[in-house]
Amino acid sequence: MKARDAVAVSALRSALGAIENAAAVDAVARPGPGEESQIARAVVGLMAAEVDRRTLSDAEVSDVIRTEVAERLDAARDFDLHGNAERAVRLRAEAGVLSRYLTDGDQPVL
C-alpha cells in the first residue's frame, strides 16, 4: 500500500465496502396502504434510530470476498469479448489481490 498500488487499493476498498454492506441489517418493512405511517411512530433523539450492524463470521466474509473475485473475473471475460483487454487485465489483477485474502481451499482459478 505504501507504494500506492492503485489496483490493490481499488480492490481492497471495493471489498471493504461489500463487507460493510453485507453487515448492514435488513430494512424494516414499510406500511402498506391504509396502515399507520412510520412517521407517527418515529423515534426521537440523537442516535435513537441507530441499529447495531451484524457481525459477520469468517465464512461470511470469505463468501463476500469470493463473490467479489468471481464478479471481477466475469467482468474481465466480458471486457475481453468486447475488445477492452486493458480493463480486463486490471480486473484480473484486482481478483488476484482479493484472492490472497482467501484460505487455500477457497481460491478460485484465475
Structure notes:
- This protein is mainly alpha-helical and 110 residues long.
- It has a domain at 6-26 and 55-105.
- 52% of the residues lie in helices and 0% in strands.
- The chain contains 3 helices and no strands.
- Helix 1 (6-23) packs across helix 2 and helix 1 (6-23) packs across helix 3.
Q: Strand-and-helix sequence, N→C?
A: HHH
Could you tell me the number of beta strands? Answer: 0
Can you give the mean pLDDT?
81
Gap between N and C termini: 22 Å
Which range best describes the helical content: under 10%, 10-25%, 25-40%, 40-55%, 55-70% or over 70%? Answer: 40-55%
Work out the strand percent. Answer: under 5%
Class inferred from helices and paired strands: mainly alpha
| Cα radius of gyration in angstroms | 20 Å
Weakly predicted, low-confidence segments: none
Major sheet characteristics:
none
What is the count of DSSP helices, taking H or I runs of 4+ residues? 3
Q: What general form does the structure show? A: elongated
Task: Give a short overview.
By secondary structure, the chain is mostly helical. Helices cover 52% and strands 0% of the residues. It is elongated and about 55 Å long.
List keywords for this structure.
mainly alpha, elongated, 110 residues, 52% helix, 3 helices
Topology:
Blueprint: H1 6-23, H2 58-81, H3 85-99
Helix pairs in contact: 1-2, 1-3, 2-3
